[in-house]
Amino acid sequence: MKTADYTPKKARQYLIRLQRWRSLVALIACAVTVVCSVIAIAVSALYYGSKGVPFTKFFQYFTTLSNMVTAAASAFILPFAVLGVQRKRFVYPKWLTLMHYSGTICTTLTCFFALVVILPYDRDFAVGRANLYLHVICPVMVLISFLMVESNHLFSRKETFFCLIPFAVYSVLYVVMVVAVGADRGGWTDLYKLNTFVPIYFSFPAMWLLMILIAFGIRRAFNALSAARQKKMYTCWGKNPDPLEIKIEVFGLGRLFGIQSELNDLTIPYDLLETLAKTFHLNADDLVKVFLKGMLDAVKEKESNQ
Following DSSP, what letter does each residue of the chain receive, concatenated? Predict the structure, then answer.
């Protein structure tokens, strides 16, 4: 067998295509999220400012704050996505994954609350003008980007509750400023009518229950999708593949990386090789060496042919 002509089986090239898919989806979805959030926040601020509403009041809204968090998370992910497109290798820090998750929970609540609670009695406030972006378009884009961007991370219950901290801080602040202080003493008006139609001691626990259900629903969907992707990634190798066959395929994957990447963009997908090693009880370092050998051989051949 001539290694110079070797490429892994088409089904197993999914490992390579996955890297491109992750990077492109992250780049497009996060870019759209940032653009929509910035436009919506700017338009809303200008509109309410023209009505004489103080600029600081605009930041009392949970909608505004949650969209700012998701826009920031998406903006932070963009450089990693661009790098992933260049290197065919998309990874980003765990703290950013948690920030993305937290923002997704908050904006999903915003969308649900606007469409189910506010829309029946105030259509303009729910989906009028820039609120259509803040309450519907941005939350939907954030949810799609979160579920579609793969990070090789499964969220635990502890992490889910951790991601509810921003909502917890806002909800306590809301009760203090609306109920304890009151608008007549410099506090907030009841922006979300939580103490208008029903007592706060009923609406507050109900809102928390809804938030927890949304958070764990998103967690379940994300973890299920991640597990399905992992299963798809490794079922192409069969149930009991020969260790030598796996190393040959990993060598071929290394060659693909070497052929398709520029010299300065070469990278080793250690997390994928480590998962492959754990799945089939192999040594991860051995797979890295095999992958690196294939990649460097391809680079040398490419340079010699130029």
Answer: --GGG----GGGGHHHHHHHHHHHHHHHHHHHHHHHHHHHHHHHHHHHHHTT--HHHHTT-HHHHHHHHHHHHHHHHHHHHHHHHHHT-----HHHHHHHHHHHHHHHHHHHHIIIIITTT-HHHHHSTTHHIIIIIHHHHHHHHHHHS--S-PPPHHHHHHTTHHHHHHHHHHHIIIIII-GGGT----TT-TTTSS-HHHHHHHHHHHHHHHHHHHHHHHHHHHHHHHHHHHHTT-SS--HHHHHHHHHHHHHHHHHHS-GGG----HHHHHHHHHHTT--HHHHHHHHHHHHHHHHHHHHHT-
